[in-house]
Structure of Aminotransferase class V-fold PLP-dependent enzyme:
Amino acid sequence: MEEELAVSYDVAGVRGLYTSLSDGWIYLNSHDTPQIPERVSSAVARSFRMSAAVPQPEPSRGSHVREAVGRPEGETFFADARAAVADLCGVTPGRVVLGPSLPVLYMALTAAMRPLFRHNSSIVLSNVGRAQCNTMLTRADADVRWAQPDLATGELPAWQYEKLVDGSTRLVAIPAAHAELGTVVAVRDIVERVRERSRAWVLVDASSFAPYRLITFDDWRADIVALDVGELGGPRVAALVFRDEAMLRRLDSDMLELPVSAGLAGGVSATVDHYASLAAAGAGSGGDGRGVAPRQSRRARLTASMGELAGYMEELREDLETFLGTLPVVHIVGVTGEAAEDADTDRIPRLTFGVRGVPSATVHQRLVANGMVATEASASELLRDMGVEEMGGAVTVGLGPFNTQADIVQLTRTVASLA
């Protein structure tokens, strides 16, 4: 298996892009605290250092060229950040709005959409999404309806939107994937059902999905895609990406003008460049001979790089579920059990598990004692409904681009020692 993976994805080369891995820990907490690539930390350091500096004017290039002479360099970082997010989603920069965090952007979007709300308007949310973001959206002057997940698998069934959505619905918010269970939401299916019933906008939080698979905005046919760059191992900057610029003209655009640190914005482009370079991590500067040469557009490099990353991470996910799933004392939430046994659920490489008869705090401590960093599962409404509290809590594992099969073997052996 390792020989096969090395051909398509050089994980050793990828690990070299993260200097933090030299401390000896096995990081299995990408869902909570992603490791920061060296190129990103260097870019942020430079951005903070140079954001207030004024660059020297370049020699004249003709009367048609207008330069912001005498302006701080940091002002260019915002345009670079929007362009990077646009490349990540396959859109144009004019459709990207930046903000300091997703909850703040969701709050601003709620306020900006006031002209669209009418008497008896409604919005549709789900507790599969982030609680903080849902809280911001419930501030809208609209009736709130809730889509319910399948408690056996954690999936969000699309069929229920036929009943939840009607002519009064103005906004439907869904995640692209659950941050802890790893279940991938059938975004396209939900969007199509919403379109049949309403002209509501569909807002998709792609933050947990983006570190593993390529985002192609048009494939989802959503109206707005939300992204927390921090979940990619980048700076704490968030973005809303709109279907087209005409949508922005229907909003109270002043509400979407949010302050963002120039120093942090300067690291967004480096974050996207990092993911565009993963497929060539083990190759020389001339590219790896597989269609990811530096001369190609960043979107083209992202397509090639994320394709190889997705294949590698899917194999690791299968090993993670298989190895842990063979332990009789382990219950993987949404995977183990008769109700979930035959489910064909699409997942990203994240899962939440418990050990029967062993409190989650003890499981977590044993992992730490053996050099592994994971997290105890959150006390979210969905996980409570799925029985996590009854089994004494659970531990969440989230894999990153640098994890290896050896990490999974070490995890499995350590958990098995608790039996």
Observations:
- The chain has two domains: 2-36+300-416, 75-272.
- Residues 1-7, 284-291 have pLDDT under 50 and may be disordered.
- The first strand starts at residue 26 and ends at 27.
